[in-house]
Amino acid sequence: MNRVDLLTRSDALARPASIAVDDVSVTYPNGFTAVRDASFELGPGTICALVGVNGSGKSTIFKAIMGFVTPSAGQVRLCGLPVDKAVSQNIVAYVPQSEDVDWNFPVLVEDVVMMGRYGHMNLFRIPSRKDRRKVDEALERVNMSAYRTRQIGELSGGQKKRVFLARALAQEGRIILLDEPFTGIDVTTESAIIDLLRELRDAGHLILVSTHNLGSVPDFCDQVVLLNRTVLAAGPTATTFTQENLERTFGGVLRNFELSGHALHEDDDARSLNVITDDERPLVFYGVKKGKKKPARDKAK
Amino acid sequence: MSDLLAELIVPFSYDYMWKAMWVSALVGAVCAFLSCYLMLKGWSLMGDALGHSIVPGVAGAYIIGAPFAFGAFFAGILAALGMAFVKQHSRLREDATIGLVFTTLFALGVLMASLHPTSVSIQTIVLGNILAIPDADAMQVVVIAVISFAILFFIWKDLMVTFFDETYAKSIGLKTRTLKLVFFTLLSACTVAALQTVGACLVIALVVTPGATAYLLTDRFDRLIVIAVAIGTLTSFVGAYLSYFVDGATGGVIVTLQTLLFLAAFYFAPKHGVIAARRKARVVKEDNLRAGNELRDGDAVREAV
Question: Which segments constitute the ABC transporter domain (chain A) (predicted)?
């Protein structure tokens, strides 16, 4: 039993993963329109970043994809199905933000991962042998088998995140939504999670990550959707995740400084260094401005 | 010796004692089941508010001769609407709103009971009187408890996921709003039932203490429920039995027993008890001390060099 088996078996029979957000507007009961005319489309084998400031509508888009809110206009289709159908078929696996969870709750790590199987169980939620095996495999994949009988609150931030990722794996959703997965975790866990996401992508999953951690986006995301109450730009990271687009998305919210000319080089090198940061992980552009840009990432201060 | 034994089995020779013990045990069990959820969500005082709010309904039902469960249900809805109304039309905080509404209703209930002393006794409502419960009332309690237990048995895992991580529960298609509504309906119903065994003032103990005790003893939710229900059932059964000897005040005996068990767990629980925590702290301290000594020794060596 290996890792690839776990994924391909369920995917073989199913239709390819896709998200189609078509002209979606969401207006809340209090009259606030959080998102207007948003459209983007994503296919299987993709990791896509959903990028925007707080209040730009990231979580509203997530809610629309999971069916928590009904768009006042437009529609969302997952794997070609309406959202409620997709949810009832366990197509969507959601990895929540850590703040949403009650850490003092008396559940063990393995109990949490087993919750991922609930959608597959009968009304009494009695785990079958298959359910137990999926839980074992998922824990193995995120390297948390040794912690399976710990109470969930006893784990570190990164370990908690891995457990929730394991729950999403056990659920076997072809579309995986991660809500700010990199807040409050160490760099080792971050790269472990990114490796895992890459494996899942290669197995045909569609992964949508909401993040304000710009620095890591070019690292592992093939696609980006830039959001500010509507979709400002969507497409491959290489062409969409540009300085201009980011300035439009974050206008005035992020720190943006540029080093060029003699401040940067001793000779007359035309290349400039642009750092965009929200004080977490900076995004660095280095190259000739307005020319062809080569986004390079740096862990500079 | 045989005299003492004969004395001890006396309660079992009375039908009313059998009835009291079984009905109490049933109510204790289902309230304990609910307590597992209630105390985890920080909603414990809601049980208190409910217990007091339904008093006028019960009093009213006795006055006009209707089944007490209907009166309680009516008063419960009145309480919920009242709280929603005050909350919407004032800037009071939630605890103030709850405190205001439930004391108002409780006062109303006490007033109603004191105006009609022949049809309803304040003492019965406030302190419960399971030893003298009429058969019709006992039947209502049993029906409420059995149905609630059956529903809980069916949905306990869905409720667990909902209360642990509501967003995720929604994302796998659970109807979290309906589940919560069902939970509060069960809570209200079981509060009504508990009113008969321990009375309005002590209802809160039944829906908090067993869960709180079990929480100190385990980190698994399924075991939490088993332990809590066992505590609720045993203390209620034994409490009703013992109340034969202390003459009345069944509620007081049941709750005292539950408190004793809680205290035992509070001090002696293997992982989360006070003594275990002290032992752990001492070990850590000793380790630190040892590490500190080694550090000082290292300094001495360095200085010598």
Answer: 19-254
CA distance A204 to A100: 29
> Best residue in B158, B160, B162, B172 to probe A by mutation, most A CBs within 10 Å?
B172
- Of A94, A105, A112, which has the smallest distance from its Cβ to B171's Cβ? A94
- What would the pLDDT profile of A165-176 be if each residue is shown by its tens digit? 999 999 999 999
ipTM over cut 0.85: no
Question: Cβ contacts (< 8 Å) between B158 and chain A: which residues?
Answer: 118, 125
Tokens 């931030």 belong to A157
Q: Which of A:259-278 have CB within 8 Å of B? A: none
Nearest CA in chain B to A85: B173
A62 and chain B: CB distance < 8 Å anywhere?
no
A126 touches chain B (CB under 8 A): no
Are A97 and A62 in contact by the 8 Å Cβ rule? The answer is no
Choose the mutation target among A94, A97, A117, A118 for the interface with B, i.e. most B CBs under 10 Å. Answer: A118
Structure tokens at B247: 């003459």
Domain assignments of chain A as residue spans, ordered by start: 14-91+173-236, 102-169, 254-295
Residues of B in contact with A88 (CB under 8 A): 173
Tens digit of each residue's pLDDT (9 = 90 or more) over B174-195: 999 999 989 988 998 898 899 8
**How far apart (Å, rounded) are the C-alpha atoms in residues A1 and B143?**
51
Task: Delimit the domains of chain B by residue range.
Answer: 2-270, 273-305
Residues of B in contact with A112 (CB under 8 A): 164
The reply to whether residue A87 touches residue B219, judged by beta carbons under 8 angstroms, is no
Residue A268 has pLDDT above 90, yes or no: no
B88, B102 contact by CB (below 8 A): no
Q: Is B269 on the interface with A (CB under 8 A)?
A: no
* Residue of chain A whose alpha carbon sits nearest to that of B156: A124
* Gap between the Cα atoms of B250 and A51, Å rounded: 62
Q: Are the beta carbons of A15 and A91 closer than 8 angstroms?
A: no
Q: How far away is chain B from the Cα of A89, in angstroms, using its nearest Cα?
A: 9
Structure tokens at A209: 């990550």
Contact B208, B36 (CB under 8 A): no
Integer Cα distance of A143 and A163 in angstroms: 9
Number of H helices, E strands in chain B: 15, 0
Lowest mean pLDDT among A87-96, A147-156, A212-221: A212-221
> Which class would CATH give B2-270?
mainly alpha
